[in-house]
Amino acid sequence: MGGLGKSTLAQLVYNDKKVQKHFDLVAWVCVSEEFDMFKLTKTILEAVAPSSTSNIQDPNQLQLQLKEKLMGKKFLLVLDDVWNRNYTECEILSNPFKSGAQGSRIILTTRDVDVASAMRAFEIHHLKELQEEDCWKLFARHAFMHDANTYMHSEFEELGRQIVDKCKGLPLAIKTIGALLRSKALDVSEWDKVLNSDIWSLSNHEEIQILPALRLSYKHLLSHIKQCFAYCSIFPKDYSFKKDELVLLWMAEGLLHETENKTMEEIGSDYFVTLVSRSLFQKSSEDEFNFVMHDLTNDLAKFVSGEFTFRLEVDRRSHRNVNKTRHVSYARNVFENFQKFEALQEATQLRTFFGIRIVNTLFLHN
């Protein structure tokens, strides 16, 4: 299940100073749904030895190089958000890691226990939903501007606990709905509207499952901020972005609503701050100047944008729908395969053609 805090827990382990000192090398790789063994292997190798991979296009050669660079080193590798269940592919990917020193460890986060089995995990930890009081404490920290004890035994606690119960113990849902209610300035009628919203009872018939708490947070955004958020579906999962760069993209698309006595940059900054305050954007754990969207928030952006955005190499879509596409992003490579753009010939309404240099998120410490 998504939103339980698997990546957050892994980050706590990864960032612990004692853990950092214990290993010769630590690395974090965001994998997500696209499991490309060549790209993953190359990403790790380039970080370990940047000069080793510039001309290597052979997967076997990459594996040998990585094996050589890890030889005798005690390393910690975190593979975050893995979806691939293919035992053979997982076995091939892990072959170079066997050259590491005794005591090396690999941490894998996944929503699917079969993935852990395919990676031959020797110990599996199943994260459970938060207990009731932990849910309330997390909610109160995000929903109330002041000490939560001030609101004990009040209407807000009664409504809040009922709302928290609808979040099913998922930290992401609790944090998001708390941030939404914080923006309502302690208005009982607004809290009641959130509690009794029909969105809680909507069934997910779509291929993408959207948490009701995320839908509610989106629903309560101003219309022009909704457009800016939906535009962010152009980013692939785990993509980190800078505030100023995203504001410029919004400006270029004409998505910002002009306001008296404010520059467009200031307006875009206000929109951005709103999305951060609602927990729809969050600071990157690897770079304090970058931001990311949780995978489930990215799913929400893709859901609300419908057929207007398309991510080459990621989204699956029949050619008959391409003529509705307004915004396209693609993975920019040194050696481009231009055949992949043939599907866009019918995209006559295209407004954005955005090349993104995608490297599976990786941060290393020696």
3D structure, described in words:
The protein is an alpha/beta fold and 366 residues long. It folds into 3 domains: 6-119, no CATH class; 132-218; 221-356, Orthogonal Bundle (Arc Repressor Mutant, subunit A), CATH 1.10.10. The protein has 15 helices and 10 strands. The chain has helices at 6-15, 17-22, 37-48, 59-70, 87-94, 113-118, 132-143, 155-166, 171-182, 188-195, 212-219, 223-231, 243-252, 264-277, 295-305; strands spanning 25-32, 75-82, 105-108, 241-242, 282-283, 290-292, 309-311, 327-331, 352-356, 362-365. It has a 4-stranded mixed beta sheet, with helices on both faces. Helix 5 links the parallel strand 2 and strand 3. It starts with 5 loop residues before the first helix and ends with a strand. Residues 360-366 have low confidence and may be disordered. Keywords: Plant defense, Repeat. Residues 234-301 form the Disease resistance protein winged helix domain. This is Disease resistance RPP13-like protein 1. Residues 1-147 form the NB-ARC domain. One of its GO terms (molecular function) is ADP binding.
* Element-by-element helix/strand order: HHEHHEHEHHHHHHHEHHEEHEEEE
Mean pLDDT: 83
Number of strands: 10
The helix content is 40-55%
* Rg over C-alpha atoms, rounded to the nearest angstrom: 22 Å
| Intertermini distance | 33 Å
How is the secondary structure organized here?
Blueprint: H1 6-15, H2 17-22, E1 25-32, H3 37-48, H4 59-70, E2 75-82, H5 87-94, E3 105-108, H6 113-118, H7 132-143, H8 155-166, H9 171-182, H10 188-195, H11 212-219, H12 223-231, E4 241-242, H13 243-252, H14 264-277, E5 282-283, E6 290-292, H15 295-305, E7 309-311, E8 327-331, E9 352-356, E10 362-365
Parallel strand pairs: 1-2, 2-3, 7-8, 8-9
Antiparallel strand pairs: 1-10, 4-6, 5-6
